[in-house]
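Section 5.1 Outputs to date
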Amino acid sequence: MIPVLFFPSTILCALSGILIPEVARANAAGNRERVCRLTEQVIALTLIFAVLISAVLLKFGGVIGRCMDGGELSGKMIRILAPVVPFIYLEIVLEALIKGMGRQNFSSLNYLAEYVIRICVVLVCIPLFGFYGIVASYYTSNVFGNCNRLRMAVKTANLRFRFGKLIGKPVFAAGFSFTAASLPEWFCPTLRETPQGIVLFLGIALGLYGLVFWLLREKNEQVLPVLQ
């Protein structure tokens, strides 16, 4: 179950390895504009990717669980944990940004606070809710820790956090594209969770997801200039 959530993040792990020296170089040179631009573009691209993966896991969590031979319980847990995926993926790139900005002390203290919260929630919630206490601890620690990282990255980069662009746009794109892609299933219920239906759904959903961002792109919007 957990590998399913983390596997797509391998792309972000590769990106984070490039980000640390890039941000550190811009920060050391006093190029605050580049640090701010990198921070905003990295957060935006990460959320675009993470929201899409979260939506796919919500839609096909049951199928994935059965394919992994985990049964209905595994699929149910994938769906329950899917909304926390954006926070998990943000952690990877935010840690790279924060370390590149020279905020290693904050990173260490934030990790400490995150794990203290996780342990405390486990100790309190497992006796009350059983296995779901672990889920509660995972949500609590990830949301707390990564909201803190996001706050620090935005503050250090002196970035104006544009909620509509960074969060609203991916959520709208996912909602619209997945709703539209579900239309064939409404007219032909036999397509649900069949290989042909899944391929058709993903083809429509991914195409519309990309189309929404293309239509809503900002004027003179640039590709992430990490390698320039």
